[in-house]
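Researcher: We're teaching a course module on how sequence relates to structure. For the next exercise, students receive a sequence and then see the predicted structure as tokens, so they can try to spot secondary structure elements on their own. Here is the exercise chain.
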Amino acid sequence: MAAGAESVAGPQGLAQKLQAVVLGVLDAYEGRPEPEVAVLLRRSIALSRLPMPPDPWIRAVASEIEGHRVYVVGAMTMPADYFASPAARSRRRGNIGDGHDLGPDPEARREADQEGEAPGDQVV
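Model: And here is the predicted structure for the students to work with:
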């Protein structure tokens, strides 16, 4: 963990904090180009004083945000009421089908798998 990083209650607490950062970036910057979103995502993670995930993970999440898709960090990390919000309902209707396609973009997954860092498969 980076010097000065805040203590979190184990991996689940870290994942929930990382999920909050991802959702914040999604809500503020969805649709922007992936390289720009990656920079903004890294900045948001650093400002939140969380350990920086591997670069392939950052790129995969940024790709999802560029495509107006929700990236779910892990089980039990999404706020219970997230999909009740108007923006999430719109996103679900317009871009991720019936709401069950919450995984990473297949191309981003393939690229990350080839680099040995499958998004969502590592502990951050």
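Model: If you want an answer key for the exercise: The radius of gyration is 14 Å. The CA atoms of residues 8 and 14 lie 6 Å apart.
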